[in-house]
């Protein structure tokens, strides 16, 4: 409502209708809350229709089996993580004893289940069936019949809880974990022991972490992110030589790890995050970076044209995330190579961004507004915002702050940068968001729109003022960095000053 008031005023149908709809929505929400049952009936199965399905998708699950997806209630394992591992190559996931659906305690005539050994342990019993046990056995509710919500607890047993079992009590909220923290905890719990027990000769050579595509790799994930490509998982990176020796076998062992952890999982992967595009598992280092950038390693300084073909969003995906362990240093070296953009390339991109800021924001935006072409004016604002956001990252240097990610996380990244100490142009982010907020009124408000018939003019003048303010800040920063000694605020005329600092006078780097 505050945004509508700022852009259009209150004396209009837009404000009144929105206010009415908002009040109605609040009333409906209150009525729905009042109709919700306060407690489950003892012995009532959790999966009892639409209401149970809806509750199971919230942050406080009532079923013992939390889902890795906001809307998923299926017990089917995630694609690529349920196939039995080849006998003798991968250790099967430990099976979990499923409670009696009736809720009764086990009788004393049955011997307790033996405690399972971790993958590769000498005490692990051999698989006499020729196949690995089904992973569904590790999931609560795998037995016939639903699991009661309020069944009586079983008597304590001396049998240790199998590794990978879900320790979360019914009704306990999931821990507030980001994807990176979940991946690190999963690595510490299962990844490290797997390497130490089954691949001790390689434990000083395998890197682990989480890097690549996905909101969790940027640290921007939240509850809404859990409905796709989210769950327990991490990456293992090997040299080409090591991957040829153990890669497929290690991948099979990775897939045999429990697919639920700390109330999360199984991991539900979208189609583009499977196969060659999978985001977790075992990779050769060169293959991993090639799948993201098209290059097995970063181009050299003598190939600036190849650097210019790599857009910033691609470089952001190749250099984000966290490395949990890298004793050999090979993965970190390759990743750092993509962070170290040659300075000639960076300055060439700075010059290009200055040109777009001048063309879209300083020149074409006021002309399109004067013509009354709201769509073209809106496109001009978008080009100005994109170029300015990119410039902020380039002037702060990618090796320090990383690269600007793709549009979905552009402002999340810009806000985070702006909160850091010692960063340049930290006031630009808020000004850009204000310009975007005013753009609807400025571009499509019309002559008689808004309170008192103010129309689009006030919003348009404010946006033009924001553009000029940002350009003055940019000139001051260029002067402070020694990239220009000119005070000219029309940024097109700053480009020759910046390009004077490019050492390699190659055609692809010089625009003027």
UniProtKB/TrEMBL annotation:
It comes from the Bacteria. Residues 113-125 have a biased composition (Pro residues). Residues 84-96 have a biased composition (Low complexity). Residues 307-409 form the DUF4037 domain. Residues 28-177 are annotated as: Disordered. This is DUF4037 domain-containing protein. It comes from Bifidobacterium phasiani.
């Amino acid at each position: 409502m505050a945004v509508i008031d700022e852009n259009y005023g209150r004396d209009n149908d837009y404000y009144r209708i929105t206010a009415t709809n908002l009040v109605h929505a609040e009333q409906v929400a209150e009525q729905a809350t009042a109709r919700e049952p306060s407690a489950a009936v003892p012995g009532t199965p959790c999966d009892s229709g639409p209401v149970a399905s809806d509750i199971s998708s919230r942050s406080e699950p009532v079923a013992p089996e939390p889902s890795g997806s906001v809307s998923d209630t299926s017990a089917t394992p995630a694609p690529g993580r349920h196939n039995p591992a080849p006998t003798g190559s991968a250790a099967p996931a430990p099976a979990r004893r499923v409670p009696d659906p009736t809720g009764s305690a086990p009788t004393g005539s049955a011997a307790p289940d033996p405690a399972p050994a971790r993958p590769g342990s000498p005490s692990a019993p051999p698989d006499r069936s020729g196949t690995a046990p089904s992973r569904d056995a590790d999931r609560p509710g795998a037995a016939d019949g639903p699991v009661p919500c309020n069944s009586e607890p079983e008597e304590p047993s001396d049998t240790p809880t199998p590794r990978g079992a879900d320790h979360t009590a019914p009704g306990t909220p999931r821990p507030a974990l980001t994807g990176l923290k979940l991946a690190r905890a999963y690595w510490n719990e299962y990844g490290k022991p797997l390497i130490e027990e089954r691949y001790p000769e390689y434990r000083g050579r395998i890197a682990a972490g989480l890097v690549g595509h996905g909101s969790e790799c940027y640290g921007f994930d939240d509850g809404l992110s859990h409905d796709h490509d989210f769950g327990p998982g991490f990456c293992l990176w090997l040299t080409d030589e090591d991957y040829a020796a153990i890669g497929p076998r290690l991948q099979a062992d990775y897939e045999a790890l429990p697919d639920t952890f700390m109330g999360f999982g199984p991991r539900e992967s979208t189609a583009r995050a499977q196969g060659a595009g999978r985001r977790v598992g075992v990779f050769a280092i060169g293959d991993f970076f090639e799948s993201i950038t098209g290059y097995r390693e970063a181009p050299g300084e003598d190939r600036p044209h190849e650097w210019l073909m790599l857009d910033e969003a691609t470089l952001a995906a190749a250099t984000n995330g966290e490395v949990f362990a890298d004793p050999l240093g090979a993965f970190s070296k390759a990743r750092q190579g993509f962070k170290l953009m040659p300075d000639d390339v960076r300055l060439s991109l700075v010059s290009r961004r200055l040109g777009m800021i001048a063309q879209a924001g300083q020149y074409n935006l006021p002309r399109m507004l004067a013509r009354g072409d709201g769509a073209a004016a809106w496109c001009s604002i978008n080009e100005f915002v994109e170029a300015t956001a990119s410039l902020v990252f380039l002037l702060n240097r990618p090796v320090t702050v990383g690269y600007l990610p793709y549009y979905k996380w552009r402002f999340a990244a810009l806000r985070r940068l702006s909160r850091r100490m010692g960063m340049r142009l930290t006031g630009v982010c808020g000004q850009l968001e204000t310009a975007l907020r005013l753009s609807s009124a400025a571009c499509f408000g019309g002559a008689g729109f808004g309170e008192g018939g103010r129309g689009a003019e006030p919003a348009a003048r404010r946006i033009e003022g924001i553009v000029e303010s940002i350009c003055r800040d940019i000139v001051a920063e260029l002067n402070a960095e020694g990239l220009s000694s000119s005070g000219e605020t029309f940024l097109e005329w700053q480009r020759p000053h910046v390009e004077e600092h490019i050492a390699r006078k190659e055609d692809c780097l010089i625009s003027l």
